[in-house]
Design goal:
heterodimer; A: 332 residues; alpha/beta; 5-stranded antiparallel beta sheet; 13 strands; B: 332 residues; Rossmann fold; 7-stranded mixed beta sheet; 4-stranded antiparallel beta sheet
Amino acid sequence: MSRLLDVENLTLQFDTDEGRITAVDNVSFTLEAGEVMGLVGESGSGKSVTAKALMKLNASNAHYLDDTNITLHLEDGPVDIMSLKSSRDLKVIRGGAISMIFQEPMASFAPAITIGDQMVEQLQIHTDMNAKRAKEVSIEMLDRVGISDASTRFRQYAFELSGGMRQRAMIAMALSTKPKLLIADEPTTALDVTIQAQVIDLMKDLVSEFGMGIVFITHDLGVIAQTADKVAVMYLGRLVEQGAVRDVIRNPSHPYTKGLIAALPSLDDLDQPLSPIPGDIPSPLERPPGCVFNTRCSANMGAICSRDIPQFSTVSDTHQVACHLFKQGDAT
Amino acid sequence: MSDDILIKARDLSVHYPLSGGKLFGPKPVVKACEGVNLDIAKGSFFGLVGESGSGKTTLGRACLKAAPITRGTVRYKDEDVSYDLTQIDKEQLTDYRKRSQLIFQDPYAALSPRMTVRDIIAEPLEVMGLTSSREETDERVREIAAKCRLNLEHLRRFPHAFSGGQRQRISIARALVSRPHFVVADESVAALDVSIQADVLNLLKEIQAEMGLTFLFISHDLSVVAHVCDHVAVMYLGRLVESAPTRELFAAPRHPYTKALLSAIPSLDPDAPKTAQKLEGEIPSPTNPPPGCKFQTRCPNAIDICRVDEPKLEHSSTGHEVACHRWQDLMD
């Protein structure tokens, strides 16, 4: 596999009426071509903002700190995303080399333009296809994602499609420009389980067929276990644990990851009581010093946790965790 | 738990008229809920599951007399009163409104942003005239707030200051302040993060045990239902297809739809064997349901009889009911 994406020291702050808040704090990760990375965390953990940063899609009150470095490796050489300023420059990556699928497909399609016209429009912007060819490619893609009678659907509007169908059309549209990197922001959260299973299968097929890298954002660890190769767990803007999916899910090392897994209702043991993570995620205005999780952590060790920011320590070759507990050699 | 039936629905149907159709011909209708028999035992935590569009919300609302009942009866029978919801008079309905309550799905939309938490929780008491003085109202509000783990400081604030989990606890406090006997919780944890979801579920269970409530818990998430409910009913396209005590349903599901729903839940084990039978397609439109068994268009086991005859709900001594022509053939 070849390296597709390098994210180094991504720090992102927003100016708000109440002051400057840190949404993403010193996040680094890499992605190979053909690899699926799951990004997990509660609402407010900064996972969507991180994903949007890859395309510089965040609102104009966003500030990227200077040592932030995002490099996308394309065939024609690496692209330094932070150096792209004008929307003309960004066109290369937005919708071209990087595509995005959103959570709510109804909100992402223009309601008064047919699905087909929207697909053709973006193909004409990003490729040199003529309208006729673009239409052929679009219908082909709709067919590929399992939409029956694709040429009829091509002429319909978003409201005429069911939820699952809309999400398929969204995927078809995102993939028709043959992106190298696909960002999927909670693509199955709004869908029923049976439809979710279909969409997950579809995405797996498409990865093996097109070989692109995927950043898959979700709060559902079950979905991650079934789709991702590796996983990064985020809490309040910081990565707290990352590694191969089997390592992280079978041997979670950060108390937050353990808590997330314990809170999932399991079908194997109905007698097991549900154990929530106590408390709520703090507001980004009141970020705790030291380890960001120390206010809710059941294994809080006092001064060290509320004073020092934990650095990543190695659990195994493919598994790192940022927790003081671990650095002291107490893995359990 | 006693064997008294609190809510008994017989042949319950809710049809919504559609616009259009022939000028003098019969108006087309959506059969949101058709011929449902339902017994909710007093003091039980009754789960109702199904995909979007299966009619579970409509059924829940019909039990509260918040949806127009086209045919059939719903009887509410408590110690001292017995109401037939189809023939209830105004005075009885006022009393029934005090005895039954609804908790909504989205805690962001359900709370007025202009009222303090104290006023939100106190409103049902004031509207129903359940308290005679402001002191008494305050006392009741404080009592229920403490039960829902809200402190006095919280009562003075406005909803925007709270996180999703806290808001849902406020919604629960408002629903329970009038001391209802029957509560419909419609997707009450669907909008919450897993870590918070477990907390709210535990709270609902605690309060139910403490106040002796009867819950109708509507959800699309089978693993959640498995953990909190005593009895589960599965709906598909307006029909009840299976109903059983929770353990029995999850140990030995009989209806192919229930089996498919169970196998569609993404497993936490990345190497889980893929024995799952994936459902093709989506739930048909309720304006144009298929003939025979409503599930036949997606059922992997459908045979000729399923396309003609609609199966009836079959009872068994264990309280396990199923509506499928072939469940016995499919058990081995």
